[in-house]
Design a protein that fits this description.
The protein has about 425 residues and is an alpha/beta fold. The chain has 17 helices and 16 strands.
Length: about 425
């Protein structure tokens, strides 16, 4: 999917149709290469068919650089303009005070993005605004759409669960849902939440995320273990994600002492780094040391997408004890490498781990159930070829044509109506 660098305003070769601006705070950049990879994976495939520019605003407040003296890595400096795989990515700043005035974040994000959005509109490079996450991005997309006279779409992701519980932000989000030309949810569970918030059932379409089949596929397990310094006979668990509370690395680590009593060869790969949502590596290392399992937990830091399959391929089982998810791409990545999954039954997880032959679901917060599921999964006779085939049936190639069709229909003035059955779970 590599493309040559483009000049400002140039569309990728072969891309034709409405000019789309992707609006999302959560997007990879030079300082945070793993931040929001799932948004880029989705929309860069759309960019193979439509001209796309990304506007990924960066939070800022006066003097925030001083905080980095005490908190290294806090809101790192991000270049204003990048060219990623031939797509122009712009990072305007917007005022965002930590913990304060959160109900104004949508307005402040829109104001911060306004100068660059106005310039793109004057260049004829905005026909549709595609906002990702309902708040503050979706609220900002609504405001910018009104100011520029352009239609906007929303892509709903896991954060809608938090917004649904806050009164003012819920009201703002409801307006954004009501005025959007089209709403895409990455899972049926998110669609249900949006409908409960007042969204129109007929106007919200499920278009799930997919697997990158060019990047994720099984490799030789023993060769990967040798490369990573893991014993050939180890039983290896892996979690991939940002090292924050939500992803649940600590919930897996707390089960390791009991797991090691049953399976003394156990190793745990904790793959990921910090993000704006938090960085708990120090706390996780302290937890592992306190429980006496520090030598069994391997903190790898962030791993680039090109090498990540080597880590999946070295493992026996993918584990994600998460608090909530919309549609986690990591399940399909792991499956594409032949791994079964143990995860919590929250959000859209049951829509991805959709059958017992793909993995196990456990109640969130039930440590003993998590431990039992891991032990059972380590001993189960998985059909790994069937798991890989499932991932291949859920590749991006299945999802993207539908999105492109919807964007083209919107810009052409045709009403966007979900296809029959699109509100149901996708397999």
């Amino acid at each position: 999917m590599s493309r040559r660098p483009l000049t400002s305003g140039e569309a990728p070769a072969g891309a034709s149709g409405p000019h789309l601006v992707v609006l999302s705070r959560v997007f990879p950049n030079a300082a945070q290469p793993a931040y929001g990879v799932f948004v880029r994976e989705r929309m860069f495939r759309v960019a193979e068919h439509l001209p796309v520019t990304v506007v990924a605003p960066v939070p800022w407040f006066p003097g925030q650089g001083l905080l980095r003296r005490w908190r290294p890595g806090y809101r790192p400096w991000v270049p204003y303009r990048e060219c990623q795989e031939g797509v122009e990515v712009l990072h305007p700043r917007f005022l965002c005070l930590p913990g304060l005035l959160k109900s104004l974040d949508g307005l402040l994000l829109a104001l911060g993005a306004w100068p660059v959005m106005r310039r793109l509109a004057r260049q004829g490079r905005i026909e549709v605004i595609d906002g990702h996450f309902i708040y503050p991005d979706g609220v900002a997309a609504r405001l910018l759409g009104r100011w520029l006279g352009r239609p906007y779409t929303l892509t709903l992701r896991g954060t809608i669960h938090r917004i649904a519980r806050t009164r003012l932000r819920r009201r703002l989000a409801r307006r954004a849902l009501a005025d959007a030309a089209a709403v895409f949810a990455v899972s049926a569970s998110l669609r249900r939440v949006a409908v409960e918030m007042g969204g129109s059932p007929a106007g919200i379409e499920v278009v799930a995320n997919g697997a990158n089949l060019e990047r994720f596929f099984p490799e030789d397990r023993q060769a990967c273990r040798a490369e990573l310094g893991l014993p050939a006979d180890a039983r290896v668990l892996i979690t991939v994600g940002t090292l924050n509370e939500r992803k649940g690395f600590h919930r897996v680590i707390e089960q390791l002492p009991a797991l090691l009593e049953q399976e003394p060869r156990l190793r745990y790969l904790a793959v990921g780094g910090g993000s704006p949502d938090g960085d708990e590596e120090r706390q996780l290392r302290e937890q592992a040391a306190r429980l006496g399992v520090a030598d069994r937990v391997h903190f790898t830091g962030e791993v680039g997408p090109a090498r990540l399959r080597r880590y999946y391929s070295a493992a026996d089982l993918f584990v994600l004890a998460t608090r909530f998810e919309g549609w986690a791409n990591v399940f399909l990545e792991a499956a594409a490498c032949g791994l079964p999954t143990v995860t919590t039954d929250v959000g859209g997880n049951a829509e991805v781990v959709a059958a017992p032959w793909l993995g196990r679901l456990v109640p969130f917060g039930d440590g003993p159930a998590l431990r039992r599921a891991i032990l059972e999964a380590l001993e189960a006779p998985w059909d790994r070829e069937a798991i890989v085939a499932y991932a291949r049936r859920n590749g991006w190639e299945v999802r993207i044509p539908r999105l492109v069709e919807r964007f083209r229909g919107l810009a052409g003035g045709a009403p966007i109506v979900p296809a029959a059955g699109e509100g149901a779970r996708q397999r």
